[in-house]
Write a structure and sequence with these properties.
Blueprint: H1 7-18, H2 22-34, H3 39-62, H4 68-76, H5 78-110, H6 117-133, H7 136-164, H8 182-188, H9 211-237, H10 239-244, H11 248-254, H12 264-294, H13 300-319, H14 324-356
Helix pairs in contact: 1-7, 1-9, 1-12, 2-8, 2-9, 3-8, 3-9, 3-14, 4-5, 5-6, 5-12, 5-13, 5-14, 6-12, 6-13, 7-9, 7-12, 9-11, 11-12, 12-13
Length: about 350
């Protein structure tokens, strides 16, 4: 199966992968440490991850037509390439379980509270498995549609919130006393910016010339997108309520009046599910692509079935673990540092050194 994407599709893959669930609880996450100045660490973090995007895309462009697993064997050797591949599989299995449980939580609390959770798991995993089986090229086409609709709806809702909100709530726009908390905020922002590694399963072609610049500005745009969500939420709820409420962005929408649309939160959640679905699809596809490379003699649909069974079992365990979300968030920082920075940067440096030798 030939997998390739255009730079436009890459933009939407990055956008939907990073914004999977984070828009809902992002305002609380950043406001509790940096207050009204939260937009500053958001932009700084976007620049840092933008540099990471440059490294990953440049690495892909150095080995056109190959995915990370293939060209990493030329750089670090077969043994370490397999070790890294197994690491990414385990990493994205954990991410997938976390996102799937988040999705179940959203569906249960906002749409179908009486439906058993294992039913959501069965239907969700079956859907994600079907789409992942089609390959990254087809996924990229779907992401273009999901991405445009999710972006337009979310930005539109934020504009209504800015119009209806109280400007006093976000003033002063910058508070020098919050600077000392930026490091904590940026640490908390690691998860909302996680996901750039999915590009490692996509072989770049000559169509992806200029991908590094585009990826960097995509991360800057995501930073502005996050800042818009945070500021509009604070304008509606005020700083204290934003910190107090877990799903503060949703709560802010519920009390925002808009013409024609009676409930902005329901309207958002309808389109927001596309983002959650997209996040799970790309995570599932990443596990599948690495697994298909490792077990190259096994048919793709058998690998997809095996991954589905593993996901279902892990999710069932996750449902029965108390404070699963807190446990996950306690170590995700270190996993993201390894996945997004340590591995790509190390391989990139070694690739540069080998090309010069």
């Amino acid at each position: 199966m030939t997998n390739s994407i255009t730079n436009r599709q890459m933009v939407f893959i990055i956008f939907l992968t990073l914004t999977t669930y984070t828009t809902i609880d992002l305002p609380k996450t950043v406001a509790q440490t940096s207050g009204r100045s939260s937009w500053v660490p958001i932009i700084i973090t976007s620049i840092i991850f933008g540099c990471d995007a440059i490294i990953i895309t440049k690495l892909n462009n150095m080995f056109l037509g190959k995915v990370f697993f293939d060209y990493s064997q030329e750089i670090v050797g077969k043994f370490f390439a397999y070790v890294i591949a197994y690491y990414f599989i385990l990493y994205y299995l954990l991410i997938g379980v976390y996102l799937k449980l988040k999705l179940v939580g959203v569906l249960t609390s906002n749409f179908l509270p009486q439906t058993p959770k294992f039913v959501f798991l069965l239907f969700g995993i079956a859907l994600f498995a079907y789409v992942a089986h089609k390959g990254i090229t087809n996924i990229a086409r779907i992401f273009e549609i999901f991405g445009i609709s999710f972006l337009l709806v979310t930005v539109g809702i934020c504009i209504f919130m800015l119009i209806r909100g109280t400007k006093y709530n976000i003033l002063p726009f910058f508070n020098a006393s919050d600077v000392k908390e930026y490091a904590i905020t940026m640490r908390n922002l690691i998860q909302p910016y996680d996901g750039m590694e999915v590009l490692l399963i996509i072989p770049f072609t000559v169509k992806n010339k200029g991908a590094s610049k585009i990826a960097f500005f995509t991360l800057l745009f995501i930073g502005l997108f996050y800042a818009l969500i945070v500021e509009s939420t604070i304008m509606i709820l005020g700083l204290n309520n934003t910190i107090l409420l877990n799903d503060s962005f949703i709560e802010a929408m519920r009390i925002t009046e808009a013409p024609v649309i009676e409930r902005l939160d329901i309207f958002y959640l309808t389109f927001g599910l596309a983002s959650l679905f997209s996040g799970m699809i790309i995570v599932y596809a990443t596990v599948a692509e690495f697994a298909c490379r490792i077990f190259s003699k096994v048919k793709r649909y058998n690998i997809i079935i095996a991954i589905s069974v593993i996901y279902f079992i892990l999710c069932l365990f996750g449902l029965n673990i108390k404070d699963m979300e807190k446990i996950f968030e306690s170590f995700i920082f270190y996993l993201v540092i390894i996945s997004s920075f340590l591995i790509p940067i190390t391989v990139f440096i070694l690739a540069k050194v080998k090309k010069r030798v």
